[in-house]
TrEMBL record:
Residues annotated as signal peptide: 1-21
Stretches assigned to the Cadherin domain: 170-244, 245-362, 363-476, 477-584, 583-694
Name the UniProt record assigns to this protein: Cadherin-13
GO CC terms: adherens junction; catenin complex; cell surface; cytoplasm; side of membrane
Pfam families referenced in this protein's UniProt entry, alphabetically: Cadherin, Cadherin_pro
Coiled-coil parts of chain: none
Family annotation (SUPFAM superfamilies): Cadherin-like (SSF49313)
Length: 714
């Protein structure tokens, strides 16, 4: 379907519309409001585009035309022509006509070749909206187009509704959003003649379309015709500047990137109609800071907003740049970038990212360090230079010792602030073994170098280390020292002879010994030959002995100036002998004088010695005096026995002698008196207050009486 075919299809509709209009009455405005034209290769200056017909029905006095695109104009006879050669006119043109008595808007759509079929659909859709009279349709309500941002005075006539059967005795009624629905009162209709007016300035970005309904009612308000849909479209004006809403805009590009590398995309938003040039944006770089090494380091795609590099990879060298950060002022202009377009700006920050194209290099080939033997810690800081970005792994150094450290006596770590290599001694050095050490150190980066760059000779360095001799303290062999002795050995017994040597073999010094720490005061040492002897009895059960081990410290002091001291530890493991009698617990028991259960108490025994000098224990009662036995003792196990009364006793205190014997060789026996209180018990309360007097056995009473009897005969 070509444009000619579209015209032939649309022409009958025009004829029908005009015929209906003639039958009715003159309608002020454009006789055709919507046009479709095929986009030419270019619009030629002064060439006729099409003819527009405007009639205000009153002679077109003071008629004036305005075109949305300033490259076009409309002559007084309605001829639309181009003022110059125009290759890009946008998607649509809007022509606003105004006379002394009326004004109207015409819309010209510019179609690509592949849009013709869609244009036909639009025409057919338009037919339904034009209010073309159909069968039994008496109201003609053509769509109304109103430019936004119109200036006062208001109300302003914008359209007209026509009734084919006349208006006598009837009234027009308008309703919908913008009339009797929020926002209310924007539109109104003359009840008598159907003139439609707008009462205020419209904003397309707030509401772009209004769908109203018009009907004809009698004088009593009863609907006669309708309702018929009346579409009001707000025509966009270029009243919104492009805005960059997604900032801040920060992009990154690797140094040395190829020409044409995309850095980032910047897009702006325009609130105007996206189908018009009012929102057709074009992008441009207004300013670049800094301007070196080239004032045009980047280019922005005018349509997409893509920012790309335009300099050679050699110029995109971070290490030679004045600054690795560039700021671009980006402008977005609507109207397709034309001079009349509105603009908005934003700043794009582009960071040139570092890549590892510079290996670290030592500041000198050889470093010197001096350390005293026996000392650990950092001995020298190795310095390197690297031209890469200090905030990246392309700058951070990693050091390693590649030769001269067979004993792993040295380690090297990176100082994160200075990037220096901190060489440390981690195992004390011995001057007598080696007075000099030579290390070969290598430095690399955390990140790998780029393929065409390699580490060179400057990435290795030598460290010469001199070890200084110091007077070292004597060393005991072995240390700690261990010996096993039986406790209670005679005073003056030899425990062992300690042995200490001086590491300073070249100084030929003598060693003397002394006691440093002897918690119990049991030991002495010969200052010359190191023989350790006892000065007191060794007691395994002493609180100074832990887990059968007694610990003492000794000093070995050389004859240096000043003298150096070494400390040796002696652990004496003490073997147990049966030198402690067992003990009995508890030693007090209470029982009621009328008790039914005569099992008085369970006794236990303990011994400070070790097995086999402890349990099993043997429990025995000392021989009971008197005519009858009052109690007995039963063994329960190896460590416990039970005392049982053989009968109830009177309220009193009783002492029961009990002997306990351990299993040592020879065994040791201990006799302990168990104090037994026989108390009065009433109502679950035990009263032992009258038992303080000791109960005397019948035998003792008889002996006392016999003594008195003998004295009377003396």
């Amino acid at each position: 379907v070509d444009v000619k075919s579209l015209f032939l299809l649309f022409f009958p509709l025009q004829v029908l519309l005009l015929a209906c209009a003639e039958d009715l009455e003159c309608v002020p405005g454009f006789q055709q409001k919507v046009f479709y034209i095929e986009k030419p290769f270019q619009f030629t200056a002064d060439q006729l585009v099409l003819n527009l017909k405007f009639d205000d029905c009153k002679g077109n006095n003071k008629l004036n035309f305005e075109v949305s695109n300033p490259d076009f104009t409309v002559d007084i006879d309605g001829s639309l022509v181009a003022l110059k050669n125009v290759s890009e006119a946008g998607r649509a043109l809007f022509v606003h006509a105004r006379s002394e008595h009326a004004e109207d808007m015409a819309e010209i759509f510019i179609l690509e070749a592949n849009e013709k079929r869609g244009a036909l659909k639009e025409i057919l859709k338009l037919e339904g909206n034009l209010g073309i009279p159909r069968q039994k349709r008496a109201i003609l309500a053509t769509p109304i187009l109103i430019p936004e941002n119109q200036r006062p005075p208001f109300p302003r006539l914008v359209g007209k509704v026509i009734r084919s059967e006349g208006t006598e005795g009837v009234k027009f009624r308008l309703s919908g959003k913008g009339v009797d629905q929020d926002p209310k009162g924007i539109f109104r209709i003359n009840e008598m003649n159907g003139d439609v007016s707008v009462t205020r300035t419209l904003d397309r970005e707030a509401i772009a379309n209004y769908e109203l309904e018009v009907e004809v009612v009698d004088l009593n308000g009863k609907t006669i015709d309708g309702p018929v849909r009346l579409d009001v479209s707000v025509i966009d004006q270029n009243d919104n500047r492009p805005m960059f809403k997604e900032g801040p805009y920060v992009g990154h590009v690797m140094e040395g990137s190829a020409t044409g590398t995309t850095v980032m995309r910047m897009t702006a938003f325009d609130a105007d109609d996206a189908s018009t040039d009012n929102a057709l944006l074009r992008y441009n770089i207004l300013k670049q800071t800094p301007t070196k090494p080239s004032p045009n380091m980047f280019y922005i795609d005018p349509e997409k907003g893509d920012i790309v590099t335009v300099v050679s990879p050699a110029l995109l060298d971070r290490e030679t740049m004045e600054s690795p950060k560039y700021e671009l002022v980006i402008e977005a202009k609507d109207m397709g970038g034309m001079d009349v377009g509105l603009t908005g700006t934003a700043t794009a920050t582009i960071l040139i990212d570092d890549k590892n194209d510079h290996p670290p290099e030592f500041t000198k080939k050889e470093f010197q360090a001096t350390v005293k033997e026996g000392v650990t810690g950092v001995i020298v800081n190795l310095t390197v230079g690297d031209r890469d970005d200090p905030a990246t792994g392309a700058w951070r150094a990693v050091y390693s010792i590649i030769n001269g450290n067979p004993g792993q006596s040295f380690e090297i770590h990176t100082n994160p602030q200075t990037n220096e290599g901190m060489l440390s001694v981690v195992k004390p050095l011995d001057y007598e073994i080696s007075a000099f050490h030579t290390l070969l150190i290598k430095v690399e980066n955390e990140d790998p170098l780029i393929p065409d760059i390699a580490y060179g000779p400057s990435s290795t360095a030598t460290v010469q280390i001199t070890v200084e001799d110091v007077n070292e303290g004597p060393v005991f062999h072995p240390n700690p020292m261990a010996v096993t002795k039986q406790e209670n050995i005679p005073v003056g017994s030899v425990v062992l002879t300690v042995n200490a040597t001086d590491p300073d073999t070249l100084q030929h010094q003598t060693i003397r010994y002394s006691v440093h720490k002897d918690p119990a005061g049991w030991l002495e040492i010969n200052p010359t030959n190191g023989t350790v002897g006892t000065t007191a009895v060794l007691d395994r059960e002493s609180p100074f002995v832990q887990n059968n081990v007694y610990t003492a410290l000794f000093l070995a002091i050389d004859s240096g100036n000043p003298p150096a001291t070494g400390t040796g530890t002696l652990h004496i493991t003490l073997e147990d002998v049966n030198d402690n009698v067992p003990s009995l617990y508890p030693t007090l028991a209470k029982v009621c004088d009328d008790a039914k259960d005569l099992r008085v108490v369970v006794l236990g025994a303990s011994d400070k010695d070790l097995h086999p000098n402890t349990d099993p224990f043997k429990f025995e009662l000392s021989k009971q005096s008197g005519p009858e036995k009052l109690w007995r003792i039963n063994r329960l196990n190896n460590t416990h026995a039970q005392v049982i009364l053989l009968q109830n006793l009177k309220k009193a205190n009783y002492n029961i002698p009990i002997s306990v014997t351990d299993s040592g060789k020879p065994p040791l026996t201990n006799t302990t008196e168990l104090r037994l209180q026989v108390c009065t018990c009433k109502k679950s309360r035990m009263d032992c207050s009258a038992t303080d007097a000791l109960h005397i056995s019948l035998t003792l009473i008889l002996l006392s009486l016999l003594s008195l009897f003998c004295k009377s005969f003396a």
